[in-house]
Amino acid sequence: MIKNYEPIFVETDHLGNPVDFEYLFQDLPLEFQNALRENRRITARDLKKMLKRFFPKTKFYVRTSRYAGGSSVDIRYTDGPALEKVENLLNWDTKGFDGMYDLSYSKRRRVLMPDMTIRELEFDWYGYVSVYREYSKEAYEKAIKELGYEGVATVEGKPGYYYVHTKAWDIQRMIYEYLRKIDL
Asked: What is the pLDDT at residue 92?
């Protein structure tokens, strides 16, 4: 008689669902692989190295903030790659929130190693990774010109604090959405 055995899961998530593994070692970014090999936590410095490898022409400012109840990583850059590309690369939040239960929980990132063992990624922060893209005056002017709003919208402000000035909010919104999607 052949018995069907269900796999035994050692751990479960915050709702009691079984957890196996999420990532294969070889699919992780190189910086995360190195941290696992060296038996150390993944730091904000590793994130910065990863960003530099993927986007060598862009300068990224990476800062870790620590506070009661957790910590977070804030990443800022001016112009450079589209915001969505950077956000997809940095989807490494370590904290989640379940609104139904009003519960904050740790996100576990389990990795199947080459020797077939399962290890958990350990991060130096407990919280969220936020990405902020700022735009130069030239980027705003380029968007205004390409969208054909030269007489309707202007760029105002000082370095680091530029913004689009127009009397029509929908034009301003379209300029910001356009900038968000393009590489500069």
From this structure: 82
